[in-house]
Amino acid sequence: MNLIKSILSVKSIMIFRLVTGMYFDISKNKIVTILAKAYCVLVAIVINVLFYKGYEIRITDPINLFLQHIIFNSNILSNLFSKGEYLFEFLNKISYEDNEIPISTLVTILIVLEKIISLVYIGLTNFNCLFLSFITVDMIVHLSNIARIMRFEIFCHRMADLRRKVEQDLSAARRFEDGEEVMMEKLKKCLDDYLKLLDVMNENNGASKFLILLSIMTAVPRVVNIGYIILSSEVGYISQFNFLFPETVVDTTVMLVPAALSEMVNSEIEALKLCIIKQLLVCRGETKRDAILNALVLLQQHPFKYTVWRLFTVDGTLILSVISLFTKHIVAMVQFAHFFD
Questions:
Q1: How many domains does the chain have?
Q2: Hey, is 204 helix, strand or coil?
Q3: Per-residue pLDDT tens over the stretch 298-323
Q4: Is there a contact between 118 and 126 (Cβ–Cβ < 8 Å)?
Q5: What gap in Å lies between CA 279 and CA 38, rounded to an integer?
Q6: Angle at 259 between CA 116 and CA 84, to 5 degrees
Q7: Domain range spanning residue 110?
């Protein structure tokens, strides 16, 4: 079990991303850092050469190829300049020691499995080395989201830890003779930790926000491209659809995982509020009541909202908006399907 946990730890997944060309600050040694950056640049050069070769042979699907090209290079550059989206700086500041990241691990496995299935399918139909290269590129593009997913998942775990700690501390405070003072101290410590978590989550996230925005902006063209492939009756599109459709589904799922995790964070915050509200039922003095009400006001005035430069919020509303947008475009394409005949 310990071996499995170590294999699926944060650093192991980041090293796996590093192998695919996504840089992170693997060591404080300057030589190791230079070598790692040089390796990532080399991977980027090789894959860009493959992209240009792909433009020559995949001219029937230029949209998906072009979007992949943009996303890949944006992720390479962002990770180079942000040291892997500052994930390990985030971990140090948030004081996260538990290596269990089940959602990020599941997403990583899902990405790899989807590519293996695509590879098996292509191997049974029309295998060639260049197509294998593009499957690898697709996997790299999808894996680029894992750092963001881990950031949200770890933040969710820390918020859950805070909620559990508050429940235990407030429950234990009743056993002391000076329980009112102990409770107020615990409550103050809880609020300080809560604000610290919010501050850490909002630090050094420019690269992550840019990549989230890029994912959202390229999602609709991908879906429109898939819709065109479905509605087109040209020979050879079916095999491309069988490859592109699961790729797009996985890409959309991975893109929306941070929004789902954000909703889980808000659920933990609501549970934290409820825990504090329950103290009103047993409080006796006005001082204690005022402290509880002040805590609730602070939580109300400092909610968790991960906004991408005030354009949209990464939460459940983003999931609904993306699904609604996809549905509208698909319905519109079906209505005008006769133009593709």
A1: 1
A2: coil
A3: 999 999 999 998 889 999 999 999 88
A4: no
A5: 57
A6: 65
A7: 2-340
